[in-house]
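User: Hi! Is it possible to get a structure for several chains at once, not just one? Here's what I have:
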Amino acid sequence: AQSVTQLGSHVSVSEGALVLLRCNYSSSVPPYLFWYVQYPNQGLQLLLKYTSAATLVKGINGFEAEFKKSETSFHLTKPSAHMSDAAEYFCAVRTDTGRRALTFGSGTRLQVQP
Amino acid sequence: GAVVSQHPSWVICKSGTSVKIECRSLDFQATTMFWYRQFPKQSLMLMATSNEGSKATYEQGVEKDKFLINHASLTLSTLTVTSAHPEDSSFYICSAYGAGGLWEQFFGPGTRLTVL
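Assistant: Yes, the chains can be modeled jointly so their relative placement is included. Here is the combined structure:
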């Protein structure tokens, strides 16, 4: 079984400041990890994914995440927050065994202050 | 990228009625689609895996007789909420893997169901 824990249900940053959203995973087999963004009343959009290649993954909109096996973490970062980054962010995990559905974390709402 | 659509985007119905939600893959064929449920300010929870031409696989605790899933073609899966009650009010989201895509799951825009 796999699971994802997102620390911090709400994160508030100032425009231009560093964004750090935390995600820790638990998996008995090598995981595949994803970050999705959700805007109000919309579906999910993939930001980036880790699929056992490079541990530092770059995604869309200037986001990146680093897979750290020793820490079982996959934190999402962006050097400079923009007002348009305000949204809900979900970390998700799946494995290559069995079903291909995703297991999502509880989500982190990012607020960007002007 | 691949596009997944859902219809309707929102629906309000009376308690006891049934509601059908459609999920379509617009530019690719999807042998497998997933149905998720999201309560306000909560995460997505997998309800079932919809397999083209066969029965859906439901997650533990999801009533298969209440949430009927039909995946009749490679581009269409439907979720019917039967005898809906206010506690079924939620945001329902479907997803599918794109053609040849093993990693990216494409999500529909979601359907907001409100049961009065």
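Chain A has a mean pLDDT of 91. The radius of gyration of chain A is 14 Å.

User: Great, thank you!
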